[in-house]
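dumping these here so i dont lose them again. two proteins, back to back, each one seq then structure tokens. dont judge the mess
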Amino acid sequence: MIKLFIFIALILNISLIKSNELKFKISENEYTITMERLNNNNNLPLLDSFKLQPNNPSDESSWLYNYNVAYCPFVPPEIIKQYNPTNDLIFGAAVRVQNLTNNPTNIYSVGPSSIVFTFAVCENQDLNNCKFNATNLSDPDYLITGPQSSDFQYIGAEDPRIVMVDQTIYMYYTAVNMNGTNTRAQLSLATCDTSSVLTMQDFKQCWKLHGPIIDESVFWSKSAGLLYREDQETQYLFYGDTDIFIATTQNLINYSTLFINESTLERETLFTTRDSSYFDSVLVESGPEPLQLSDGNWLYLYNSGQQVTTPNQKPNWDVQYNLGFVILNGTDQQLNSNSILYRSPTPLFSPTLNWELCDDDSSFWSTHGLTPLVVFIEGWTPLGNDQFLVLYQGCDSVIGTSLITVKIN
């Protein structure tokens, strides 16, 4: 099996757009964390459907909206051998894709979502020269799961996050269905044992749906990042799109929802929203899996919302999504709210480019963004030396990349 951990401390000729820099101290350690946009394609998205870049297969998706992107650390050998893995960087991704309904009244009249696999090739391991072959998103062999896969997600499959343990991929995603007249979201699990996967056909057939994993009494659950520690029996899953809740597992298949009070269904939280003076006052939603820093602590990214008055075309839309983070104690055996050593007081990342804003001042993008004022992170991977490649989406429509750098003194 080919494992794609070839991101080895890539200090490249990367052209970056500066973003926020946050400095803070934990015990005796001083931290500086930055997140910078990789300058792909003249500040245009890395993957989309709008054909704004001549002769670039990355913007030729047959799906109108391509977003909610998770990093996938496995690409079938059949694909790898078509390129030069010695010189080129190749990585996989799971992407939420969506079209309009058959008779849409506007750009917000969307049909069901599916989750589709794709991959990117970065020539000469240059993170500024990556391209997705977006045309394969319409290939049935690249479908991971969708509304046709099971009754418990017949309205759609959304929001993937992926971890790989040994040779098995664990994909946490949201299955959407109807409960009477109410839409119901349920955090669900799909796995793929890659030990015998050679071709895309193998990859398509390896996926197994395990269904919802949060207690049935919880009506709405979604968005999860797994903190996996190989030397621990109990693993922690952080999930939710209002507050960040906690579940645990011993086998990565069956999960226990942690309750404070089962009779009232009050669940244990890692953290919640803050007051209206903060960037995360409306909601907090899990990012991808926490990743470990060189000092042993864990960096956990989370998405968040705040109320704004920015003019945009989406009716009654007044929320801006920003990225926050917490540092979790690497020495804690049991993880809970007391494990938080630091929480960002300001956003690490906010909508800035036109395809992230999609507001009334964003020219073309003002009428081509499904949800204005959104940057949203669901996938990343370590590069070494406390640097991380981040996949993110703008306006629930398109995909970009960025670089997180943490310096610890």
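---- next one ----
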Amino acid sequence: MHSSSISYHRIKAILARPYKWIGFFQFHTCFYCRKVGFVSKKLSCEPISGFYDDPFVNIRFNAYFSSFSARNFNPGSHSLSSFGDHNGGCQKNGILNFDEVEEEEGEDCCDDEDDNFMVLNSCNVNRVQTEDVWRVELEEDEFRHPLVREICRLIQLRSAWNPKLENDLRHLLRNLKPCQVCAVLLSQVDERVALQFFYWADRQWRYRHNPIVYYVMLEILSKTKLCQGAKRVLQLMARRGIDSRPEAFSYLMVSYSRAGNLRNAMKVLNLMQKAGIELNLAVCNTAIHVLVMANRLEKALRFFKRMQIVGIIPNVVTYNCLIKGYCNAHQVENALHLIAEMSSKNCSPDKVSYYTIMNFLCKEKQVKEVRDLIEKMAKDSNLFPDQVTYNTLIHMLSKHAHADEALEFLREAEVRISN
């Protein structure tokens, strides 16, 4: 080893007490067979040998020091997830402590009764209710951009990566716009590969993810059971000082729910409260959806009533979640009653409201009731059956092995279209 190289024991001692070395040793790693270090604010660079014995050593060192660069090295402070003081941000001096979200994999029950509902009591009744969900809409051109395609090609070659390929990928990454980074993530067939690329990019020098990239990554993970990945992305947002909107926590809740962990999903609400982030309608809808998917209809109804008491007015998405819950519980009469109640609450049902009930009726082969519901949909809600309606009915009947009834609706649809 080179005489001035840092030994294993010295590295181990430095990593054990990084805050004592911050003035002397801020960054020390290997890039392309050269040792690079910042010592007393001076840059040293000298060649070393044997680097290609482990060509990805730079990735591991970058990963470690990238995480330390976001930390507070004050020895009296041990919080690694403090929110930054960003005026106008969605969190106010809150601290995310994910240790309070217990890891109970496979937990399919929630015995805390209404403990998770106490967070609703802290809502400001006089606040202005907003229903918008923060989403990133990408144009199709972003996915066809040459830089996006080239990065996707290099990612597919990850099993054969070498320093040259990684250097090419790093150079392309720094030339990407935030929407193009999102396009790269959304283009990955395997969500785990997208998450690995997200982590790798976050560790790169002279690059930081735009806030929209975090939300796109969370949205991708919300469609999977990778709840640990979603939790870590949310932690990274806190470490990097990225404003956490309520929707970010909604994505984590859904991911926990998909993993069958209802208890941890509902504990996210308490985490939001302690971080100083106020619930909005979107998060409440997510909570009701999570409870319904876990067959906790009674608790979903209690949450529904409690949110109205604190001034959060339900919308059509809220009612559709409850309609889904009633149908799952084979309480179709209650679902129809809820649709009738929506009009009096100044919230008109949409086609999804009716399609949800139709799905249950098709499963039970109640074709007459389906036709009655179609008439009710047109008469009461001024929603007339169209091609989507018939396609939905045909699909539902076929899915549940009711071929004759599906064929009947197919012929009816052909007559309507021809006219």
